[in-house]
Design brief:
It is built from 17 helices and no strands. With about 325 residues, the chain is mainly alpha-helical.
Amino acid sequence: MTNIREMLEQRERQMLSPYAAFSDASKGRKKEEAACDIRPVFQRDRDRIIHSKSFRRLKDKTQVFLTPEGDHYRTRMTHTLEVSQIARSISRALMLNEDLTEAIALGHDLGHTPFGHAGERALNRVCPEGFRHQEQSVRVTELHEKEGRGLNLTLEVLDGIKNHQTAGRPATLEGAVVRLADKIAYVNHDIDDAIRGRIICEEDLPGELTEVLGHSLKERLNTLVHDIVTNSYGKSEIIMSQPVESAMFALRKYMFASVYTNPVAKGQESKAEQMIEMLYAYYRTHLDFLPEEYLRLAEQRGESADRIVADYIAGMTDKYAVSRFSDIMIPKAWGVY
């Protein structure tokens, strides 16, 4: 039978930009394994992430608004899918490796806490070793999936996941695309959700910014994607024009002032943070109540108690965190029946 993987790798060499990450030139995995005869390495990584438990849990994790009443607000899962779509569109236009781009995008938030950045702030405060969701996303793929065996992703995917934050410096152009696509996605879909929640309206957005970026979600996405493609095509870096980049970051700053710290939108976050802190304190002093897999990880890998407690809580969905808190902290009625 013809080796389809080799045919696909050859096609990458023929079609992709010389600045793309080629599957047959991957730096490999931390644990060597036999190559697939159908799928190149980055496609395998994408598939592994999609089939992982941590990916499925994203559907019940907060993006920005805690427990919103309505079916159309974003979750961490829908955010991830929107990042993936934007990043793939950019990568395809620039003739980069879409499989690598998609794998990074789908995996970039696997380690995010329940209750969004409120949960992240709480864990970072109480865990002596600190907590950063991008580093946790790498831990999840390496240590917690497949009962501790990990997904064994390629080094390029791990690098892109770890460096998707603003301060990150991804080693591949595909990682750089995801880094920008993440910001494009959350700024714009958070505006959409805030308008849906009547926290702001389109007319509230600064006029000098909408004149540059557009007056609707569709227009702004179109402007940002086209700007990146136009300015990055045929180049060894992913860049934006100065006016559009400045407007995007100014819009992000506006969102922090008007939405991300808005008492109406974020009024419940202090409760969520207290819940996370109390769960951490409880499990830190009751390690025997942690699932067996976490205790085994601590023993086998020499992980600290602080780290495995943070691992366990970070892996919770919003609903599960509330359920565990209720079981542990709220007295139950007693009676003889």
